[in-house]
Recover the amino acids of this structure.
């Protein structure tokens, strides 16, 4: 009967439609979900950016311009921030203070660059804008991104975030403090963020050490199974493994070239009186994986220099929460003039 | 080819606004379900079996709704569009086997005689199957004082429901035999609609729509009210779309007497693993009718009522009985259904059997083993399950409309949860105790 055929065909068609729909949804689930979630995020950031634009206009009108000095040497100021938090905790910079900083930078005529641009400048002399500044964030916490991105969007700034691959990628990643892989991808996609490495286990504090500073990178571990401390070889291998692990994990997650690194705690063995040779071992190991590394030991290396003819070591200015826009500009000016005399009181080389 | 496609598109287009609305809403719900729930799972490579199982189960369940969507159309094609000159009024015999039903039998008999149908075409046969209470007295009183036409078959010893029904068939004078449960009855206005499908000569049995009469007793009966509506108007309707209702429910079903008489003996002597079967007479009879090559249909306008268990133990016993019946009946049906109706067999019957057998194990794994081993709550499974139940509720609500069962729609969730947690294991229990042939009392 014709009706029966129609009924059967309609039924088959509907079932096919259901199957295709379900399979299609499954295949598209992840990208759609991410697109949806970060679509919302992008919308929020845009709205906030508009507010900041407005606020900057008011700021520029009411403040006197302080012109940035021209860069005459290789001392491109590199700023170090961690988390940008709503309320002061005595250590991290607050959102309002950070806003003051970036507004001052903008008004003074500074233009942000990326670490890649810095590397190319140091290596090949590729020209930079007349008033360059590299703004960096360590640890890759969510607070280093979400409050900051709208401001960067408003001012046309870029930032570099050094990510701890242990907390941000793979199965241990995506907690509520550190940025997850998806968030990093989103950050990259905005075009305003550069993602580089901050180590894997290298940021851990509770590793088996006895005495001295217990930083993963700079101290020799006690090998329980063998009942002795690490020797030079063990130590080299361990730190090299950490560097390459972090580099590979991030490169894979973000399909990007991880050419830069920042030492956790700014420690590359420069303070270890027990094993002074650690510093060379670490720097040798890191030079095998990265082109440019950042540190805060300005008492030792006040200016960027080329280590072992293959890796650039660049010092960073640790930004303090008590600094207003003026103090920040002053510190940068001092650094650009000559590295050594620009160290403010209290900064010893630890981060 | 073009006419084929245009016929399909027309039939889909003129499905009606509410149906289209329902389909759109369900698409949205599905999108929500899959994007949120499944975007965080590991996907096919990690758990191929579970993934495939979930996918196919959901497509299968949704195919039931798809088939139910086409029910009305199928019914019209099979019945309403059948040309018939004049009024179709065959002679009808009510057959009511009963045992110890002194409370309910009076109402049942009264409702039968109150049917809006020519009384000379109506016959009521009650088989008193070894009652030990006042059933027989009530029956005699009814016959003497009100219904002289009532035929009473009085058995001092209990022979079983199947024998009662068979006796009723043998004594019936009508062309159509309507079998009722002794505590059930049909709405007197529905009798005419009940017999209409028999206008189609290929139809051998008709299943009525049954709702619990004691719906509002407690939460258990309310849940059963929701379940009955769902089971009839959605699941049986889905089967009826292809004129293959596998179980014309014993609470109220009509049969073409002439085709049943020859198979009565075979049906009476049916055994399973060497012992006679004391349950599931309705499914076995429907199987026999299907095997003969006749169609079975569900008539949703025919309203019947039954009494459902009020206590949980009774409810579980009934479920065990039904699951045993389903097992033996499905086994018997599988022998001929693949030859006779391959499309129904492969698109519905065998997948249905497979999933019913698999579900207890998958549920055990996802709700018990996995959480214990991984110390995680199976949120995704429960959430996905709830969203699927919401989809069913959407259709339930659309199709219930002004029906009395409409207001029990929240209990669909209760039923779904109970079904997946408890009843899939009841099924296992039923399978394991299949050799226990006692009749679990109502």
């Amino acid at each position: 009967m014709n009706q029966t055929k129609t009924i059967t065909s309609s039924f088959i068609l509907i079932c096919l439609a259901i199957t295709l729909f379900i399979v299609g949804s499954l295949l598209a689930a992840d990208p759609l979900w991410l697109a949806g979630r970060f679509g919302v995020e992008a919308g929020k950031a845009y709205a906030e950016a508009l507010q900041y634009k407005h606020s900057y206009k008011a700021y520029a009108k009411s403040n006197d311009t302080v012109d940035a000095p021209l860069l005459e040497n290789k001392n491109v100021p590199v700023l170090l921030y961690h988390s940008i938090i709503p309320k002061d905790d005595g250590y991290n910079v607050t959102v309002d203070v950070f806003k003051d900083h970036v507004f001052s930078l903008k008004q003074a005529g500074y233009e942000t660059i990326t670490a890649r641009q810095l590397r190319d400048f140091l290596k090949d002399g590729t020209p930079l804008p007349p008033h360059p500044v590299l703004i960096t964030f360590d640890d890759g916490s969510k607070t280093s991104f979400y409050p900051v991105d709208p401001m960067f969007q408003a001012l046309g700034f870029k930032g570099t975030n050094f990510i701890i691959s242990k907390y941000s990628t793979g199965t241990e990643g995506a907690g509520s403090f550190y940025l997850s892989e998806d968030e990093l991808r989103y950050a990259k996609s905005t075009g305003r963020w550069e993602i580089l490495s901050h180590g894997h286990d290298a940021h851990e504090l509770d590793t088996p050490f006895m005495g001295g500073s217990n930083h993963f990178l700079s101290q020799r571990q006690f090998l329980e199974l063998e009942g002795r401390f690490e020797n030079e070889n063990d130590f080299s291998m361990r730190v090299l493994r950490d560097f390459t692990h972090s580099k590979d994990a991030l490169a894979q997650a973000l399909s990007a070239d991880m050419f830069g690194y920042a030492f956790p705690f700014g420690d590359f063995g420069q303070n270890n009186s027990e094993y002074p040779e650690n510093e060379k071992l670490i720097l040798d190991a890191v030079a095998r994986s990265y082109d440019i590394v950042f540190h805060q030991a300005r008492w030792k290396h006040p200016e960027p220099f080329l280590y072992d003819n293959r890796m650039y070591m660049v010092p960073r200015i640790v930004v303090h929460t008590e600094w207003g826009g003026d103090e920040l500009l002053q510190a940068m000016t001092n650094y650009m003039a000559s590295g050594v005399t620009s160290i403010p009181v209290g900064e010893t080389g630890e981060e | 080819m073009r006419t084929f496609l245009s016929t399909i598109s027309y039939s889909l287009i003129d499905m009606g606004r509410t149906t289209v609305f329902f389909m759109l809403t369900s698409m949205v719900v599905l999108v929500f379900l899959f994007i949120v729930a499944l975007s965080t799972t590991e996907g096919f490579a990690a758990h191929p079996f579970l993934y495939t199982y979930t996918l196919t189960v959901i497509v299968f369940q949704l195919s039931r709704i798809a088939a139910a969507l086409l029910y009305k159309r199928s019914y019209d094609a099979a019945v309403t569009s059948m040309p018939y000159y004049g009024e179709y009024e065959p002679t009808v015999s009510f057959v009511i086997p009963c045992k110890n039903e002194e409370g309910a039998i009076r109402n049942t008999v009264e409702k039968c005689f109150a049917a809006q149908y020519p009384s000379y075409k109506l016959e009521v046969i009650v088989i008193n199957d070894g009652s030990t209470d006042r059933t027989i007295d009530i029956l005699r009183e009814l016959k003497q004082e009100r219904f002289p036409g009532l035929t009473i078959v009085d058995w001092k010893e209990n022979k079983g429901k199947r024998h009662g029904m068979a006796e009723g068939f043998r004594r019936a004078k009508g062309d159509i035999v309507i079998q009722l449960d002794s505590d059930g009855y049909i709405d007197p206005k529905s009798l005419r609609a009940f017999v209409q499908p028999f206008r189609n000569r290929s139809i051998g049995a008709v299943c009525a729509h049954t709702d619990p009469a004691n719906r509002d007793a407690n939460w258990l009966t309310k849940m059963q009210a929701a379940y009955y509506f769902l089971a009839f108007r959605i699941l049986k309707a889905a089967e009826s779309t292809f004129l293959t209702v596998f179980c014309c429910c014993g609470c109220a079903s009509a049969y073409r007497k002439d085709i049943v008489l020859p198979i009565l003996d075979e049906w009476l002597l049916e055994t399973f693993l060497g012992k006679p079967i004391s349950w599931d007479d309705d499914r076995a009879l429907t199987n026999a009718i299907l095997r003969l090559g006749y169609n079975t249909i569900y008539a949703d306008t025919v309203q019947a009522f039954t009494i459902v268990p009020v206590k949980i133990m009774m409810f579980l016993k009934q479920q065990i009985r039904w699951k045993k019946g389903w097992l033996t009946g499905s086994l018997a049906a599988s022998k001929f259904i693949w030859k006779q109706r391959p499309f129904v067999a492969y698109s519905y019957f065998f997948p249905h059997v497979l999933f019913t057998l698999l579900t207890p194990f998958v549920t055990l794994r996802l709700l018990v083993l996995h959480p214990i081993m991984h110390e995680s709550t199976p949120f995704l499974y429960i959430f996905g399950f709830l969203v699927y139940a919401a989809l069913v509720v959407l259709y339930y609500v659309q199709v219930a409309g002004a029906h009395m069962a409409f207001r029990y729609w929240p209990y669909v969730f209760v039923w779904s949860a109970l079904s997946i947690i408890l009843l899939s294991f009841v099924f296992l229990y039923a399978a394991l105790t299949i050799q226990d042939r006692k009749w679990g009392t109502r």
